[in-house]
């Protein structure tokens, strides 16, 4: 790693840690009503566009592998997606709620499961960093997707920990640990690339790209999109709300699509 890359990595991981920790403690200031459903839908549209225009494409570009190795990127994407779905659904089976909602009167056991599930999820998100950091456009897209949902996730975790019967110091340390896991995943992904030779480095980079893509699929389609349309109430007011949500998703997708199109026309997407 060059000095510039080291400074950049330190800066990004430090910002990610502070950003997450601030929103994990923001429940002390903001109320539940400040979690905008429409903002979440807009972010979902942005993530879907990022998957289509950027991350999914990277799975099949610049690969010199043959045979089964040629599918190692898509395989990694599928496995990481399924792992996150397992974590999500196993948690939901215990807690009977959605993990980006704000839990009320949560028990100690449920809070621990919640923290563990989101912590593993956060670490996996961080592992995609090295695969994106070599390309400026990809890095910007990666950070936008992560930050676009991290604030909601951190807020919900902060509320669940605050409502659980944790000792104050324990609660604070849990939030610090959770906030650090995405940056730790980023650093680990960088270190892996440093200590392997060229052939293994390319394979690991391909795997990390798959992990990143699978994580984005989960964030966009399971964590954000699905949770916004789980209601089965077909009242007139709910239909209007659904149309507004769909409009927000479309606007988010269109905004990101325009950005990618303009970038491709002016400087070219790597």
Automatic annotation (TrEMBL):
Keywords: Membrane, Transmembrane, Transmembrane helix. The chain crosses the membrane at residues 6-25, 37-53, 73-91, 111-130, 142-162, 174-196, 202-225, 246-269. It comes from the Eukaryota. It is found in: Membrane. It holds the Pfam family Zip. Coiled coil: none annotated. GO terms for cellular component: membrane. Its main location: membrane. GO terms for molecular function: zinc ion transmembrane transporter activity. It is a multi-pass membrane protein. This is Zinc/iron permease. It comes from Edhazardia aedis (strain USNM 41457) (Microsporidian parasite). The lineage of its organism: Eukaryota, Fungi, Fungi incertae sedis, Microsporidia, Edhazardia.
């Amino acid at each position: 790693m060059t000095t510039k890359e080291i400074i950049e990595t330190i800066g990004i991981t430090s910002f990610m840690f502070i950003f997450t920790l601030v929103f994990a403690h923001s429940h002390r200031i903001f109320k539940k009503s400040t979690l905008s459903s429409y903002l979440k839908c807009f972010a979902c549209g942005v993530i879907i566009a990022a998957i289509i225009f950027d991350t999914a494409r990277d799975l099949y570009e610049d690969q010199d592998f043959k045979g089964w190795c040629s599918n190692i990127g898509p395989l990694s994407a599928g496995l990481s997606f399924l792992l996150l779905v397992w974590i999500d659904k196993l948690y939901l089976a215990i807690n009977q709620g959605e993990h980006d909602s704000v839990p009320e009167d949560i028990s100690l056991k449920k809070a621990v499961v919640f923290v563990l599930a989101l912590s593993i999820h956060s670490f996996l998100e961080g592992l995609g960093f090295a695969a994106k950091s070599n390309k400026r456009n990809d890095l910007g897209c990666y950070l936008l997707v992560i930050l676009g949902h991290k604030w909601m996730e951190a807020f919900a975790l902060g509320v669940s920990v605050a409502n659980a019967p944790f000792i104050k110091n324990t609660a604070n340390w849990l939030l610090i640990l959770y906030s650090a896991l995405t940056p730790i995943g980023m650093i680990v992904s960088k270190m892996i690339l440093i200590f392997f030779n060229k052939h293994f480095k390319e394979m690991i980079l391909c795997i990390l790209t798959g992990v990143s893509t699978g994580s984005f699929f989960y964030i966009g389609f399971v964590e954000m999109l699905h949770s916004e349309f789980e209601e089965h109430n077909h009242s007139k007011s709910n239909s209007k709300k659904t149309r507004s949500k769909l409009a927000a998703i479309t606007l988010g997708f269109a905004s990101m699509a325009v950005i990618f199109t303009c970038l491709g026309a002016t400087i070219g997407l790597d």
